[in-house]
Amino acid sequence: MKEVRELFKNQQFILVLVLAAMIAFFTFKNPIFFTNDVFANIVSDWAPVVLMAVGQTYVIISGGIDLSVGSTVGLSGIAAAFAMRAMTQHSVNQDLTLAVGTLIALAVGIAIGLVNAFLINKARIVPFVATLATLGAARGLCIVTTGGGPVGEGPQKGFKYSVAWLGPFNTPALMVVVIVIVAGLFMHKAKFGRYNYAIGSNTFAARGAGINVKRHLTKVYVLSGALSGLAGMYFYIRLGSGSPSSGASGELMAIAAVVIGGTSLAGGTGRMSGTVIGALILTTVTSGLIIIGVAPNWKDVVVAVLIAGAVFTQGLRTWTKD
Amino acid sequence: MISSKKSRALIALAAAGALVAGISATSARAADKITIAFVMGAESDPFFQAMKVGAEAEAKAEGVTLIWQGDPSQYSPATQIPIADQVLAQKPSGLVLIPTDPVALQNTVTKANAAKIPVVNVDTHVNDLSKVVSFITGDNADGGAKAADAMAKAIGYKKGGSYQVAVGLTSATATTNVARLDGFSKAVAKKYPGIKIVDKAYSQSQPAVANTNVNNWLTKYPKLNGIFAIDGTNADGASAAIQAKGLSGKVALVGYDAYAKNVALIKSGVITALVAQDPAAEAKLAIKTLVEFIKTGKTATAKNVVIPNFVISKSTSAADVAKYTYVQK
User: Fold this and answer.
1) Is the domain of B236 the same as that of B285?
2) Nearest CB to A290: which of B49, B216, B232?
3) Per-residue pLDDT tens over the stretch B146-187
4) What average pLDDT does the segment B293-300 reach?
5) A37 and B219 in contact by Cβ < 8 A?
6) Which of B53, B167, B206 should one mutate to test binding to chain A, selecting the residue with the greatest count of A CBs within 10 A?
7) What ipTM was reported for this prediction?
8) Can you say how many angstroms the Cα of residue B115 is from the centroid of all Cα atoms in its chain?
9) Residues in B 139-178 with any Cβ partner in A closer than 8 A
10) Taking CB atoms and an 8 Å limit, are A147 and B44 in contact across chains?
11) Which residue segment(s) compose the domain that B233 sits in?
12) Could you confirm whether domain A30-315 is CATH 1.10.3470?
């Protein structure tokens, strides 16, 4: 009996239960939900969200926040789209074009991460405000550079890669899975992750213990930017174009995934597996509501309930400790 | 707010001064360089970008100065009203206003009239049109009806048959969305009773969200015959989903707005037809009307002008395709 009670105090276990209940509910309402096609749709929505959320988990555990991830998705996708359009006009090999596009998206993400790190470490602006500034700047640049329209005429092969072939997984989503696993291992098994928890729990103590806090934070914000840049490329592959509105309010999705996953906004605690399931729950809601025919605007309400519920169960754990 | 109050006071002072001098404000401005302010909905929308190209061309042709303003990305009265206030503070000779809300922007028209600034509405209008020189628009309900015709043709509609169609919208409240959907639904009910609108979903102006919606429809309705994408964003998301699932030509896609990228997709058979508006022509006529009105006190333009929509499909001539494709910078 005690073991069962312990199990219910485990956030990951509760999350899996919530996810299973959702799948059961949607399937009960419309059996089509329990098909590989629907799971493929969910995975394809999940991949960019989890990319942003994994970076965000590092940032939040370190005691910060990164509001610029959604705008980074937009800007990196557009930068890649411009380059890939030019390469396509010069009939460059499509796979090579996509690879170069990925590197450019990654570079834009890293650049925005570096700007965030500069504002936080050198200009000493709190992360919330620093990344709020880059959120606005990057989204503004999206519109200025494109005039508002999508940038297409790139490699058509991208669509081929967005088709699921290994169960519900398509090739880019499989790459995302690998990235997530590596990021999770670094979080829980490497020095980098331990530093991150230390800084998030107590910056002064971490500094006292000899950790170079500024250098570590630079790495964390660059990681968050880089993963968001990859998410921008993911959107490109799915849409065949870079859209200035891609990733809009992506920061809220990412933060929601992290919080539902059990990471505390106060920093210092949290697990990558929680974030992964949190993101999965969010995207399952989206597809599920469409499949059972509920007005999609309800999604925001459901997500709100999930966030409140997740934070409530966190509180429950601390109470029982007392 | 203080500065706009101040400038309004200044406008009033200037107007009073002009009256004292015995010169009517309009004729005084006519002698000077004419400035036309153009306050639109959302700068980032390619529809307004195409409108800007038309407005700039006409302003140049007429030799007038153009002030082009609007929120970068939000189509909302909350952001538009302060912008309109600032623009009026610059004392333009005339105002082209695309009101994002028929009630909320009425006051802006009243303010402009008080400062003797004539107003033309384009695309959407304020409730009380008596205070406006002219209202020039594309007809959204007609566009919806034309989309229904294009859809029926694309799915090979036959009497007695039964067909499934889904509609991708941007939001439940955007007036253009409401009018287009209304026109579409009415035409379907009247002329094509075999077509059933099985689902609707919102894109929140994001192609990726539209893409998710359509991906799920294609799973949920294996026999789906067609999709009506009510604007460019929805057409983007839907065309990507159809291409990825290899359903080009199998699921008819009728879109709205002739963005260059989507016009190209007609050629490759992904999009069946596009309902095109003519935003550049709307803007040109609006500026022409205002300049004429400022110079002469009257205009040959009718009180209410409807610029017809045009359906682009594979059989459209290259000249018409070029004419109706939205010019983008």
Assistant:
1) no
2) B216
3) 999 999 999 999 999 999 999 999 877 777 888 999 999 999
4) 90
5) yes
6) B206
7) 0.83
8) 27
9) 172
10) yes
11) 140-276
12) yes
